[in-house]
Design brief:
This protein is an alpha+beta fold. The chain contains five helices and nine strands, in the order αβββαβαβααββββ. The protein is about 30% helix and about 25% strand. The strands form two sheets. Strands 1, 4, 5, 6, 7, 8 and 9 form a seven-stranded antiparallel β-sheet that branches. The chain has a two-stranded antiparallel ribbon with strand order 2-3. The longest helix is centred in the middle third of the chain and has 25 residues. The protein is globular.
């Protein structure tokens, strides 16, 4: 059973993901996409009952990776039963520049722990924006986990809704290069 079979077709997901990131970027800075984002659909690769998350596949170079999970309720969050995941990948070479252009002036790669926190804040903000976008379409508000941030990959993978088999990917280009990639997997969410 995929999200598509429960009302989330890929074109709707593409629109929601693009709007979420575009609205966030427009509200934070004057940066614009160098070109329209690329959107694609992929099979989830399971790794130890989690979704494999390997950043080097996104950029062919080092990157930062942060993810959050979506839950149907705070009780489901407490029980660790996700309905979806949003995974953010930032290209290592442009991460600090992109974060600073988005208003995260404290972003400094020389202070790794603080930088990881900033990457996590960006992931959480985009996830919240996505949550707002689906609520505007009449879907229930989702609970959101705290972000976890890593370099290059997520050891052990990211939890996901186990009945989902596909994820959606949006690649965003800034300064004529791919700088940010979002992966989203989302199970069935009911209307309000």
């Amino acid at each position: 059973m995929t999200a598509k079979s429960r009302g989330f077709d890929p074109e709707l997901i593409k629109s929601i993901m693009t709007d979420a990131i575009a609205n966030f970027i427009e509200s934070k800075c004057n940066s614009k996409f160098s070109k329209p984002p690329d959107f694609s659909e992929h099979n989830i690769i399971e790794y130890a009952s989690n979704m494999r998350v390997f950043g080097l596949e996104k950029f062919n170079s080092p990157c930062y990776v942060s993810y959050i999970n979506f839950f149907l309720s705070t009780q489901e969050l407490k029980n660790k039963n996700p309905i979806g995941a949003l995974i953010l990948f930032l290209d290592y070479q442009s991460a600090e520049r992109l974060l600073k252009s988005l208003g995260y002036s404290q972003a400094n790669e020389d202070e790794e722990d603080a930088f990881f926190d900033t990457v996590g804040q960006l992931c959480e903000t985009i996830a919240s924006q996505f949550n707002n976008e689906i609520q505007n379409l009449g879907y229930k508000e989702l609970a959101i986990s705290k972000p976890l941030t890593f370099k290059n990959d997520v050891p052990g993978g990211a939890p996901f809704y186990y009945e989902e088999t596909r994820y959606y990917e949006l690649s965003a280009y800034f300064w004529k290069q791919k700088a940010l990639v979002l992966n989203l997997t989302l199970g069935p969410v009911s209307k309000k």
